């Protein structure tokens, strides 16, 4: 079976974001594994808990079932002021803006996942 690494650069309201989720579900249901889903550029908005992004709960459920990480590009998160708990505390904020179930990571993590995957796909602009 194949190992997929998915990069999602589409905004959560964009059709390509839904297609990415559907592809990930189909791959998992077909017995394939997901090494990582990496959200970059506008795709990072999926992990912002200040926004109403219905797909985020569906991504989290899939990640739990498929045992894969949902990683948000650190640069994209920084541009959108999406902060994990340690970063929020350093800035004196009461709570993180990173949605539960997502982690912030860098392109090195993406590269590591992509180098071990048998299928690497990017969805979005």
From TrEMBL:
Protein origin, superkingdom: Bacteria
What InterPro entries does the database record attribute to this sequence? DsrEFH-like, Sulphur_relay_DsrE/F-like
Protein name, UniProt field: Sulfurtransferase TusD
The organism encoding this protein is Spongiibacter thalassae
């Amino acid at each position: 079976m194949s190992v997929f690494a998915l990069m999602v650069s589409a905004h959560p309201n964009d059709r390509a974001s839904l297609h990415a989720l559907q592809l990930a579900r189909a791959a998992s249901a077909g017995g394939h594994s997901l090494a990582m889903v990496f959200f970059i550029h506008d795709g990072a908005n999926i992990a912002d808990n200040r926004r109403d992004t219905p797909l985020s709960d569906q991504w989290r459920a899939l990640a739990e079932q498929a045992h894969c990480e949902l990683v948000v590009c650190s640069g994209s998160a920084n541009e959108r002021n999406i902060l994990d708990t340690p970063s929020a505390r350093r800035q004196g904020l009461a709570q993180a803006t990173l949605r539960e179930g997502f982690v912030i990571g860098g392109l090195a993590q993406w590269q590591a996942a992509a180098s071990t995957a048998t299928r690497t796909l990017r969805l979005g602009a």
